[in-house]
Design goal:
- This protein has about 270 residues and is an alpha+beta fold.
- The chain folds into 2 domains: about 160 residues, Jelly Rolls, CATH 2.60.120.280; about 100 residues, Orthogonal Bundle (Arc Repressor Mutant, subunit A).
- It is built from 10 helices and 9 strands.
- The strands form 2 sheets. A 6-stranded antiparallel sheet has the order 1-2-8-3-6-9. The protein has a 3-stranded antiparallel sheet with strand order 5-4-7.
- Strand 4 and strand 5 form a beta hairpin.
- Helix 3 packs antiparallel against helix 4 and helix 5 crosses helix 7.
């Protein structure tokens, strides 16, 4: 992967990246602690977000709130280029006291209304943003350009969000949305695939097929990721890892420890030392 531009600080991470020959294995199910705005520039790909699939076209925009699980699905070879902006909500609320710019992220169900087509956006803010984010800019000047581009994009998206109706969905998409909602409502309970299949009156294989097609992951990959993100948030807030383990649905500390270290690259006890 080639990075054409990158900026990072405590509340903001932006990168303009291109994969000349993208390997589908490099793109996996994940979620972020910050909010994300993805500008799709070129490639042949679709994106799964919490039970919905969005086929991407040049200059489309995809938005994800914190912990919203998503995955890029590479459909065929060809350069995949995008700009991703990850930001803390506090960065926006400092200038948007009524929270209007964050409504498209927060005032919708998981996996719904994430996609904004280039044709829905009236201005040419996407191209302008690309021109402004150049590798020549560094330090505070780079930050100003990124924040300026982000606020402009959020303003455009907010206007579209306020005026557009909810999108329709197929039967399988509707079931997938219900599955996502049910799993999140019972995330820390002792649920099993058998329990879920009985509740939705379908076989486990059918459930896995619908959920996998909609999210790009298995049910238990999804549950484990969500539980780990919730656990990390509690640990960073000062709670003990041994207590968090049980509260977040893990049956024993050893399995929690292994999963945590594998996903985050360090032990739960190391969080407060970082």
């Amino acid at each position: 992967m080639e990075r054409k531009f990158e900026y990072r600080d405590e509340s903001l991470f932006c990168h303009h990246s291109i994969d000349i020959c993208p390997d589908p294995a490099d793109f996996y199910v994940h979620a972020h602690e910050r909010m994300e705005l993805l500008l799709f520039i070129s490639g042949d790909a679709s994106c799964y977000v919490e039970g919905s699939e969005y086929v991407m076209q040049p200059y489309d925009v995809l938005i994800m709130r914190s912990a919203e699980v998503h995955k890029t699905h590479i459909l065929s070879q060809g350069p995949y280029e995008r700009i991703a902006l990850h930001f803390s909500p506090a960065l926006i609320t400092a200038v948007d006291r009524e929270g209007l710019l964050l409504r498209p992220f927060l005032d919708r169900p998981l996996g719904r209304l994430n996609h904004y087509g280039a044709g829905e956006i009236k201005s040419d803010f996407l191209r302008s943003a690309l021109e402004n984010l150049s590798p020549e800019a560094g330090g505070e000047r780079a930050r100003m350009r990124v924040v300026s581009a982000l606020l402009t994009m959020l303003s455009e998206i907010s206007e579209v969000f306020e005026s557009r109706p909810g999108a329709g969905q197929s039967r399988d998409e509707g079931i997938a949305a219900q599955l996502v909602e049910y799993i999140n409502a019972n995330l820390f309970n002792d649920i099993s695939l058998a329990d879920i299949s009985r509740r939705f009156y379908m076989s486990q294989s059918q459930l896995n097929r619908i959920f996998g097609k909609a999210t790009g992951s298995s049910v238990w990959e999804y549950v484990r990721l969500k539980r780990l993100l919730a656990a990390r948030e509690r640990i960073l807030a000062g709670e003990r890892a041994t207590t968090v383990c049980t509260l977040c649905g893990f049956k024993d500390y050893s399995s929690f420890y292994r999963a945590y270290k594998m996903h985050f690259g360090h032990a739960p006890s190391e969080e407060t030392k970082r």
